[in-house]
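Q: Given only this backbone (91 positions), what sequence would you predict?
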């Protein structure tokens, strides 16, 4: 679940948006801040600011909505199982 809040960006506003689709969360937040606060955000500038279980792969910088999805990605693409659990035998 991704979430963006105006208060986290210096606005005296209770608006927040959350959802499973990161792109939609960013779009709704960006539309709100442009209309209500006159501040335009680019998608790339908001992605790292999302509050929630958003994880980046340390190897290829791909984004995932949970540590479990990130772990599966690393297992399949980069190193094999166990890396996030501390098993470094395959490194």
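A: Predicted residues:
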């Amino acid at each position: 679940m991704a979430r963006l809040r105006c208060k986290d960006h210096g606005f005296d506003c209770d608006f927040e948006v959350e959802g499973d689709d990161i792109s939609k969360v960013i779009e709704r937040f960006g539309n709100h801040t442009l209309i209500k606060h006159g501040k335009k955000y680019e998608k790339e500038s908001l992605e790292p600011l999302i509050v929630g279980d958003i994880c980046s792969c340390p190897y290829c910088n791909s984004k995932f909505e949970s540590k479990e999805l990130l772990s599966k990605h690393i297992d399949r693409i980069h190193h094999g199982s166990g890396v996030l659990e501390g098993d470094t035998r395959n490194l």
